Amino acid sequence: MLLSPIMYGICLKYMKTKTEADDVFQEAFIMLFQKIDQYKFSGSFEGWAKRIFINKALEVLRKKQRHMYVEIEDSSLNYVVEEDIKKPDVKLSQDELLKHIQQLPDNYRIVFNLYVFEGYDHKVIAQKLKMAVGTSKSLLSRAKSVLRSRINEELKKKVS
C-alpha cells in the first residue's frame, strides 16, 4: 500500500519501541481493512486512514497504562532549558529526532504528536485524551522543554 511508510511513521512517533510500533501498525491495518466499507469517499483516504492509526496507537497506550499523564509535581522530570547552540554545521538526523520523541514519557509524547504532527488544537486533544485543556497545554510545554534539553545535550556532544 502506498500509505504504508506514512502510517508506519505515525506508529513510530507514538510508540516507544520499534516492536510496539510494528504491533500497532499490523493491528491498525487489520482494522483499516475491516472498516474499509465505512470510508465515504469524502475527504482524503489518507486522512481517514491516519485517524485509524492514531486512534489504534492511543488505544494501545491506554491499555498499557492506567494513568495517561505524569503528576505535574514529578521532580524527576524537571529539566533545565539551555540556550540554543548556534552552530549551523551541527545537525540532528530525522532518526535521532525520532529517538528523542520516542523517549518522552507517554503522556508528553502523545500530546506532542497530536499537536505538532497531527495539527490538533488543545481543546480536541483534551477531549480525545479526557483531560483538561490546561493539562494538554502543560504537557506540550513540558514535552518541548524535555526535547529541547535532550537535543541540546546531543548537539553539544557532536560539537565536542
Commentary on this structure:
With 160 residues, the chain is mainly alpha-helical. It is 65% helix and 0% strand. The chain is built from 7 helices and no strands. The protein has helices at residues 4-14, 18-34, 45-64, 94-102, 106-117, 122-129, 133-159. Helix 2 packs across helix 3 and helix 5 crosses helix 7. The chain is globular, with a radius of gyration of 17 Å. The protein starts with a helix and ends with a helix. 26% of the residues are buried. The model is unreliable at 67-88 (pLDDT under 50).
Biggest β-sheet strands, sense, barrel = none
As a whole number of angstroms, the C-alpha radius of gyration is 17 Å
Describe the global form. globular
Low-confidence stretches: 67-88
Can you summarize this structure?
The protein is mainly α and 160 residues long. It is built from 7 helices and no strands.
Keywords:
single chain; 160 residues; mainly alpha; 65% helix
Topology:
Elements: H1 4-14, H2 18-34, H3 45-64, H4 94-102, H5 106-117, H6 122-129, H7 133-159
